[in-house]
Amino acid sequence: MLVRNLGANFASPGLASQSSALQYSSAYGRESTTDMKRVSSLSFPKQRRLTRTSEYDHVKQDGLVRRGKLLMLSTVAVENSGLSRVGFITSRRLGSAVARNRVRRRLREIFRRHQHDLRQDFWIMIVARRDAATASYRALEDEWLRLARRASILL
Predict the structure, then answer these.
(1) Chain centroid, CA 153 distance in Å
(2) pLDDT tens digits, residue range 1-17?
(3) Model-level pTM?
(4) What is the CA radius of gyration of the chain?
(5) Does 1 reside within a domain?
(6) How would DSSP label each residue in 37-92?
(7) CA angle 37, 141, 71 (to 5 degrees)
(8) Tell me, what's the pLDDT at 63?
């Protein structure tokens, strides 16, 4: 617990403990409930993900493909599906499990940050290409935005 010299400003020990709790919470980045609502809207819930093999197959068979140096983006419009959903594919060609997981984490973060900029009723599949394993976060994000613009899924 973060304890500061409170001096004579607090006559009651109860007030001193409340004040140190407030200092503790603000020192460790706890935010107000309005800030928490804003942060939670950037979450990446399961409803935003493609989870079934049949969903991936639908995007592979019927989707429009946009290819880039680092990523391949397939999109298919699905009527009345609500929010856009995304699935990620990182094959063993990328390298070790560590490299594949790093690419997946970066792609999830890119989608999470830009999910509110996407049109609704789209299913999106992102396939990482071999060069994605050595690419920077910024390069992956630039490629994702370029391909999303080409696929006309950005608002």
Answers:
(1) 17
(2) 444 554 554 454 554 44
(3) 0.72
(4) 22
(5) no
(6) HHHHTT---GGGB--SHHHHHHHHHH-EEEE-SSEEEEEEE-TT--S-EEEEE--G
(7) 125
(8) 95
